[in-house]
Amino acid sequence: MTTKTKYSEFLTPENAVLAMIDHQTGLMVGLGDEHPTVLKNSIMGLIRTAKAIDLPSVVTASLPDGPNGPIMPEIPEVLGVDVIERAGQINAWDSADFRGAIEQTGRKKIIMAGIVTDVCLLFPALSAVEEGYDVYAVIDASGTWNKTVQEVTIQRLTQAGVKVTTWASVLAELMNDWRSDYGDSLGRVLAEHTTKYGYVMNSYFAKG
Length: 208
Description:
Elements: E1 16-21, H1 25-28, H2 36-52, E2 57-62, H3 74-79, E3 83-86, H4 96-105, E4 109-114, H5 117-130, E5 134-138, H6 147-159, E6 163-165, H7 167-175, H8 183-193, H9 195-207
Parallel strand pairs: 1-2, 1-4, 2-3, 4-5, 5-6
């Protein structure tokens, strides 16, 4: 009899929490691994996925009154949550408020995105894995200085057992079945935030 492990168990709306880490305006202006419009679209797709299924979500920022700047306003607006402002910890997992908000959900699978990928995403992902969490690093909703930094970070994440993924893959995993209660709402998120598949979805919705 096969026993499921965290590597074969899928995300569900009941077992996961979303963590959006340091998507701050002062950090985003220096990103070079993805076009800003594409990155923003991926971020919006991820948070609207979470909103569509009422997924518990935690948003944090490091020194938002300093050079890092405030969080993208769309993130707390869409998710309907307050931003946890850290006093200065670089690794968000070192913040008792952030870690406590994750723990309070009682969920062990963390869908995590952050800017910059090699710090804001990497460090808490490594720390969470060490404490027994199953972390999904959403690379296309994260960003860093250039492709080399992104590629090196992905290797370190996978070495630690973090699941590297994309926002649309997360959406599909959470939906699981087009006939689910979330099929229509998640399908509309796909239609609005994936250009090519969006054409397919828009044609389908137009028939209705």
